[in-house]
From TrEMBL:
Keywords: Glycosidase, Hydrolase, Signal. The keyword Hydrolase applies. Residues 1-25 form the signal peptide. It comes from Siphonobacter curvatus. GO terms for biological process: glucan catabolic process. GO terms for molecular function: beta-glucosidase activity; carbohydrate binding. Pfam families: CBM_6, Cellulase. GO terms for cellular component: cell surface; extracellular region. Gene3D superfamilies: Galactose-binding domain-like, Glycosidases. InterPro entries: CBM6 (IPR005084), Galactose-bd-like_sf (IPR008979), GH (IPR017853), Glyco_hydro_5 (IPR001547), Glycosyl_hydrolase_5 (IPR050386). Residues 448-577 form the CBM6 domain. This is Glycosyl hydrolase family 5.
């Protein structure tokens, strides 16, 4: 209820002030030297979120990596329920996945920009399906969805950045990100696909030329193609990138025929990061995007982009990042903002914990996954339709799991090392606190875990963060057993902090529900050691309560830290009795 009231309040303020903000100069983003500024010349740090999974499904988002591209997912659904019902499913998907409540919520959390990953086939027909060769059939579906999204962004004073995520034919060898069918010509192998891409951007620019809450045009997402060397499938080693530069120049020229207002954002080859042969820029209102995943968060990791910014006097933007732990999120954003670089996270919702919203996985959906992976029986058409309808309802924000720890890491923790309670722990006569409900905050402030983030793109570094990938996205390892969550993979030196409120000062009896092969732990209360190297027994995988320990608490707020002296045990809950 508080969450909904906050959204209504935010929207009311947004609507009341929109006209005055526009009149006072808030509006088109512009490149001014190495910074992005509004029409009044005020520096803007974009703090954005990408709407992955809405117009373009990638298999991993829905535990369908074995299917990969959207056209293959669609074919698998059609095989179960038929083409007509599949079309109805996708229409409802577009209506349910992203709605006004999503944009209202993101604005309330602190985002000032949204990146829309567009699939071209919602705006125009594939080249091979055009009734007249060389002409372009325009489809209202994509434009209408974009219009609605723009209205919701405008109501919240949030910039909307249009991102062509799936180009005609597909822009790379990573097939899922552009829904590419490798049996057909790619963007780079077909002049007709290139012409359609140019025409689509001209159409979009013509439609939105005078809309100040369009933040810019991100013209080709993550090109990854070997132009000189076909074996360079990711395009990371290309030295000239002539076809990529040529097409981006032509797109820019088409946009400028109808739109002189909006920022144009370009991405290099190699998933946005290889700018060899592409610069200098060819337009005065342009920014460079780079993407960053799973590497260290130090200046060395971004130095080449800082050098490009200073050499060519052009703004840079972290146009896509995320898919990691909260520790990595906070460190990456802190690095960006120290260097006046805006950022856009990936993504608002999917199946998994490392986004603000998590789409629930039901037993029925598990049944579909088993069938599609060859490990289960084929459901009937009626059963498959029921499961898919259930999924459509679970797409809606009100049916998602909200992860406040992710939002806290993206915003508050960037600015503050202070901790906050994850849940209210009011101690009465008998109180049980779930071990997984430790405080919100940074690594080394709310908890310490020896493995708190993934650096999977750094050779020789094999950390993973939360190994169980359950419940919350902090670096602490959390697993699930039925409807219970517990801390796993405990290691010596790790600790968890809990903020508790005692109704009365006095002595409390504290015990722990553990499964232990012989671990020990210690407890601090308000900075003082009160339990030292407590043995947890040697019951192996069986769950049991430890003997009680007497601790004294102050009336009101107390801070407890539970330290792992000897690890290997699982911790499910803390039990207080008075």
């Amino acid at each position: 209820m508080i969450f909904r009231k906050r959204i209504r309040l935010l929207v009311g303020v947004a609507l009341a002030t929109l006209c005055s903000l526009t009149a006072s100069g808030q509006g088109y983003l512009k490149a001014q030297g190495t910074q992005l500024v509004d029409r009044a010349g005020k520096k803007i740090i974009l703090r954005g979120m990408g709407l992955g999974g809405w117009m373009l499904q990638e298999g991993y988002m829905f535990r369908l990596s074995n299917l990969g591209q959207q056209y293959r997912i669609k074919a698998a659904i059609s095989e179960l329920i038929g083409p007509e019902k599949t079309e109805a499913f996708y229409a409802r998907w577009l209506n349910n996945h992203t709605r006004k409540i999503d944009i209202d919520s993101m604005a309330a959390w602190g985002f000032n920009s949204i990146r829309l990953p567009m699939h071209y086939n919602l705006y125009t027909l594939p080249t091979e399906q055009e009734p007249v060769t060389g002409q372009h059939t325009w489809l209202e579906t994509g434009f209408a969805l974009t219009d609605s999204l723009l209205n919701w962004c405008e109501a919240n004073q949030v910039y909307l950045i249009l991102d062509l995520h799936a180009t005609p034919g597909g822009q790379g060898n990573d097939l899922a990100i552009s829904d590419r069918d490798p049996s057909k010509p790619s963007l780079w192998q077909s002049k007709a696909n290139q012409q359609k891409t140019i025409a689509l951007w001209r159409k979009l620019a013509e439609r939105y030329a005078n809309h100040p809450w369009i933040g810019g045009y991100d013209i080709i997402n993550e090109p990854n193609w070997g132009f000189e060397d076909p074996k360079d499938v990711r395009g990371t080693a290309e030295k000239k990138n002539i076809p990529l530069r040529k097409l981006m120049v032509e797109i820019t020229q088409a946009i400028r025929e109808v739109d002189k207002n909006h920022l144009i954002i370009i991405e290099g080859n190699g998933f946005g990061n290889n700018y060899e042969g592409i610069l200098p820029t060819w337009d005065s209102n342009m920014a460079l995007s780079f993407h960053k995943y799973g590497n260290f968060n130090n200046q060395e990791a971004i130095q080449k982009f800082l050098t490009l910014r200073d050499t060519y006097k052009v703004p840079i933007w972290l146009g896509e990042s995320g898919e990691n732990s909260n520790t990595w999120f906070t460190d990456a954003i802190s690095l960006m903002e120290r260097h006046d670089i805006g950022w856009c996270w990936w993504q608002e919702k999917k199946m998994g914990i490392n986004n603000p919203l998590e789409i629930k996985v039901t037993p029925g959906y598990e049944q579909l996954l088993a069938y599609w992976s060859g490990k289960g029986a084929k459901p009937s058409a009626a059963e498959a339709e029921r499961i898919l309808n259930e999924l459509l309802e679970n797409l809606k924000l009100e049916n998602n799991r909200f992860h406040p720890d992710v939002v806290d890491a993206l915003f508050r923790q960037v600015q503050s090392s202070q901790t906050r309670p994850f849940a209210t722990h009011q101690l009465r006569k008998n109180t049980v606190i779930k071990a997984v409900d430790f405080d919100l905050g940074r690594q080394r402030s709310a908890y310490f875990d020896t493995d708190s983030a993934s650096y999977h793109y750094t050779p020789g570094v094999n950390t993973v963060g939360n190994r169980g990938r359950q419940y919350r996205n902090d670096g602490v390892d959390i697993e699930r057993e039925g409807d219970r969550y517990y801390i796993s993979h405990s290691e010596a030196g790790e600790w968890l902090q809990y903020t508790v409120q005692a109704e009365k000062a006095g002595t409390y009896q504290l015990s722990f529900r553990v499964a232990s092969p012989g671990g020990t732990l210690s407890v601090d209360v308000n900075g003082k050691r009160v339990v030292k190297a407590m043995p947890l027994g040697n019951q192996g995988e069986a769950w049991s309560l430890t003997p009680t320990q007497s601790i004294r608490l102050n009336r009101g707020v107390n801070t407890l830290r539970v330290y792992v002296d000897k690890g290997g045990f699982k911790l499910e809950s803390l039990h207080f009795n008075r």
